[in-house]
Amino acid sequence: MRIISGKLKGRRISPPKNLPVRPTTDMSKESLFNILNNHFNFSELTILDLFSGTGNISYEFASRGAESIVSVDGDMGCVNFIKKTAKELDLNIIPLKSDVFKFIEKHQSSYDIVFADPPYDFTQEQFEKILKDIFANGLVDEQGMVVIEHSKFTKMDHLEHFSFEKNYGGSVFTFFEYELEESDEDEDDEDN
Known about the structure:
It comes from Myroides marinus. The protein is α/β, with parallel strands linked by helices.
């Protein structure tokens, strides 16, 4: 696993073999960040990384200068690995051990980007609940974006706030955003 871009570009990270994870491939990760790069200035972003696993996505955001990153995973081994790696590399990542569903339910902050990479064997209902609860509990800013990584067998393009999706082999990134209202400036211009 390596960091694709930013101040730690090319840095290899070797998680222990016994972690219960399926890290996002470098090729998929590079494509994801190319898309996000067209929407956001990373230096001002607040990030929530759900089902963070090895911290692969969190390290990428940190390397690119994100303001703050909260990484949530239910496995203590994953959380300890992220904590250790973030300290070694001096990254502004806050790793938290929590059941992600409970975290979403109780958490009070909102973020510019919420990235979720649940286990691919989650049911369709579990994937949909994650998304619904993120929006219902205000975890994403009005100008923000939710990205969910899932297998090609899970369908999310019919859900509220769907924006677009990108396929990379067996993996799919589906992007969700609030539908922004047309600004009132157009009407103001007509009055002048």
